[in-house]
Write a structure and sequence with these properties.
alpha+beta; Porin; 2 domains; 16-stranded antiparallel beta barrel; two-stranded antiparallel ribbon; 7 helices; 18 strands; elongated
């Protein structure tokens, strides 16, 4: 009911029949005025009860069109007021029906909802706090060497030339642990499809049974133990945090990935413990099957220690150390058919003799500095040493990468990367060489959820390494041009 009314309509509770109530009126008009007096008193009463979240009383005189259907004689200004009052009474009967057992609860609930509006929940109660996200990442790239098979060496994701390619399609479900919501445990599942799947999970180079876990990029649960500042314990498979770059292209400075991203571990399976000492320092410990081993293929376990320093909002520094035996102890059974033993297909019971017992050590550090809200610098340094047997001569990889990004407008930025990788013993590329690359990437973001990227990249080496259009003929450099398109949407904000 509106709080505004015409000046010609008497206010609720006002006595329209004053001392000259019956002057010059017919009996029917007098009866109508009496009914209107009673109705207006009931309306005032009803308003007061609604304000107090009370159910309105049943009117003693039902307000119906039949009751008000009496002849109104157009005689004077007072008769006009009677006609307007009758119209008002009809409007009241439409806007506020009499209270009955069927609508008293509805009226009260509606009144309480109006007084205390609740935000709409996007998901059912048992899924509260859960986000569902999707991404699609595709590209067209051209390698000016016109390599055989269109293969770009040694790329991680943009692996093909002169082809429309689906790099990655992902589905991410997450219910993050949040003590402020009285939710100490969380869960995350990343399903991934496309060419990047072959890099991360689809090759027997990574797994003895890749088909079992091919599309599970991440799957872990965590729990925040209420001790001190909160100790987070995580179990499952998660993306490795060694190195500056990550999996989802929308969160990277460049479209293509660096050599070091392709070389350092992609993921781990096991336990992770994380504890914030204070606002500036967080420490982590990992106990895993190894590097890129969802199922362990030896009898050893790998360990890692990580330190994350954030002295202020504009600066962060990561220092990581990872070590373990990354050599196979069992002969892979890649095409098992029907197993000869009562076990799952692909599980090998044939040991490698003598069993390789060498270990790998990775020292990784990277830092990011947001100089202004437009200018960003980042740098990474790595040293890796690995032995097949404990007394074998080591293979070593060392080097690093530098990044710069400038945000010209909210929608447009340019990012550059320069990288150097010294591969001694062919640990990364299979050949002792010095690899270098320079990359320039332009990104235009049409809106939240769609990016268009154009990139030019030059790779070069001190040895003939890159494919050409002739068999067994290699070049010391390759240039590629790429157009990438990334779509994403979902409830998770920020980096994925």
């Amino acid at each position: 009911m509106s709080g505004q009314r015409s000046a010609a309509i008497p206010a609720a509770g006002q006595n329209t029949g004053s001392q000259d109530h019956g002057a010059g009126l017919t009996p029917q008009e007098k009866e109508l005025l009496d009914r209107i007096d009673k109705l207006e008193k009931q309306v005032a009463e009803l308003r007061a009860r609604i304000d107090q979240n009370q159910a309105p009383p049943q009117p003693s005189i039902p307000v119906t069109a039949q009751n008000l259907a009496v002849p109104v004689v157009q005689r004077s200004s007072q008769s006009t007021s009677i006609q307007q009052a009758a119209t008002f009474a009809t409007a009241v009967s439409t806007a506020a029906p009499p209270a009955t057992p069927a609508n008293v609860g509805q009226t009260k609930a509606a009144t309480q909802a109006a007084a205390h509006p609740q935000p709409a929940s996007p998901v059912p109660g048992f899924l509260s706090g859960t986000t569902l996200n999707f991404d699609l990442d595709g590209y067209y790239g051209y390698n000016f060497n016109n390599p055989l098979g269109g293969v770009n060496l040694p790329r991680a994701y943009d692996v093909l030339s002169n082809s429309f390619s689906l790099n990655q399609a992902g589905v991410i479900v997450e219910r993050a642990a949040d003590l402020s919501q009285n939710r100490p445990f969380g869960f995350r599942l990343d399903l991934m499809y496309g060419q990047a799947t072959e890099t991360l999970q689809g090759s027997p180079v990574n797994e003895p049974r890749p088909q079992v876990y091919r599309n599970i990029a991440q799957a872990y649960g965590d729990y925040i133990v209420p001790v001190g500042n909160g100790l987070t314990i995580q179990f499952g498979k998660w993306f490795c945090s060694l190195g500056e770059e990550g999996n989802y292209t929308k969160d990277q400075l460049n479209y293509s990935r660096a050599f070091f991203y392709n070389f350092l571990p992609f993921y781990h399976m096991g336990f992770l413990a994380s504890y914030p000492i204070n606002k500036e320092l967080t420490v982590q410990y990992w106990l895993t099957n190894g590097a890129n081993q969802t199922e362990s293929f030896n009898n050893g376990r790998s360990n890692a220690f990580a330190f994350i320093v954030t002295p202020d909002k504009s600066t962060s520094w990561h220092l990581n150390y990872f070590e373990g035996n990354q050599q196979r102890a069992f002969v892979p059974d890649l095409n098992p058919g029907i197993p000869s033993l009562p076990t799952q297909p692909g599980l090998s019971t044939t040991p490698i003799e003598p069993s390789p017992n060498g270990r790998e050590h990775i020292l990784d550090s990277y830092a990011t500095w947001n100089v202004t809200n437009k200018l960003l610098f980042s740098g990474e340094g790595d040293y890796v040493i690995s032995r097949f047997f404990s007394n074998s001569p080591p293979a070593e990889v060392s080097g690093g990468a530098g990044y710069v990004k400038y945000q010209f407008t909210p929608a447009f930025d340019l990012a550059g990367r320069f990288e150097y990788l010294d591969d001694q013993g062919g640990l990364f590329s299979g050949k002792t060489q010095d690899l270098k690359e320079g990359t320039l990437t332009a990104t235009y973001q049409f809106g939240e959820g769609f990016q268009l990227r154009g990139e030019f990249r030059r790779d070069f080496s001190n040895q003939p390494f890159f494919l050409t259009n002739l068999p067994n003929v290699f070049k010391r450099d390759q240039n590629t041009a790429t157009v990438g398109m990334i779509w994403w949407f979902g409830g998770k904000q920020g980096a994925w």
